[in-house]
Amino acid sequence: MHVDLNLLTALDALIEERSVSAAAARLHLTQPAMSRTLGRIRDATGDPILVRTGRTMALTPRALALRQEVHAIVERARAALAPEGELDLARLDRTFTLRCHDAITTALGTRLLRAVQEQAPQVKLRLLPEPTGDTDDLRHGRVDLEIGSTEPALPEIRGELVGQDHVVVALRRDHPLARGRLTAKRYAQALHVIVSRRGRLRDPVDDALEALGLRRRVVASAPTSAAAIQFACEDDLAVALPARVCGPILRALGLSVHPLPLEVPELRVVQLWHQRYESDKAHAWLRGCTREILQAICRGGT
């Protein structure tokens, strides 16, 4: 059944004004056009809606019964089509799902939770780990914001670079490499654990070593930075990590941190979202919070 929703607006005006001419003036129509619309409403409802009583018009029982419902529908439609109002963070009740690299979750999490609780206390956050493979979660709305090093892979995914970090080597303090100058050759001779959520045993550090004619021995990959750091805390293993993102946990655990003696690209920190949220004020507020915190982290701020 085809329904002309414009008839609801006209019916609301006719019921409220109880006059064809007054309803026409309210909707900026001519009286003949309003009379034709009333005819269509009568055909659709099977009811006269307005009937003449002397010099005035009276509502039929059906029109009186429809009055509140029709008015409510028209008001909801107007609200739905009206420009979005100012964002009221104190009253914002929404759950956002973020998916982050585990090191970013650790560095960002506490500060983001504090900012959200201070500004929008009814907002809740779901922090998810990165998956082992590619997903369409952003496209299908299962994830609101993704933070890692990945660039947008689809045209409908928006992204922004919020910071960069450099790689350092973390060792336990009594590791043999912790004494003396860390050269590329000494670094290659160590045992290594790398971070890979997909279980890879190779990363760009190996490319940089091979460019110098060196190879290292990777004995394990760990799915998270936290796990790799724990391995390095308990054994003579070297782990290469982002300096600023992992800085707090490295300091807290008392690891020895050294510059990586190789030329490798800086690590990019990128946040991604679907284009459906581009103009969403609440989502823009969340992106602003994460952007500000991550920029401070990547600048070395606390």
What would your notes on this structure say?
- It is a single chain.
- The protein has 302 residues and is an alpha/beta fold.
- 40% of the residues lie in helices and 22% in strands.
- The chain has ten helices and twelve strands.
- The strands form three sheets. A five-stranded mixed β-sheet has the order 4-3-5-12-6, covered by helices on one side.
- Helix 7 links the parallel strand 8 (191-195) and strand 9.
Keywords:
302 residues, alpha/beta, five-stranded mixed beta sheet, 10 helices, 12 strands, 22% strand
| Percentage of residues in helical conformation | 40-55%
Spatial arrangement of strands, main beta sheet? 4-3-5-12-6
CA radius of gyration? 32 Å
**What's the tally of helices?**
10
Instruction: Give the overall average pLDDT.
Output: 92
Q: Briefly, what is this?
A:
Helices cover 40% and strands 22% of the residues. It is an alpha/beta fold and 302 residues long.
Which helices and strands, and how do they pair?
Elements: H1 6-17, H2 20-26, H3 31-45, E1 50-53, E2 56-59, H4 61-81, E3 95-100, H5 102-119, E4 124-129, E5 145-148, E6 157-165, E7 167-171, H6 184-189, E8 191-195, H7 204-211, E9 217-222, H8 225-234, E10 237-242, H9 247-252, E11 256-259, E12 267-274, H10 281-298
Parallel strand pairs: 3-4, 3-5, 8-9, 8-10
Antiparallel strand pairs: 1-2, 5-12, 6-12, 7-10, 7-11
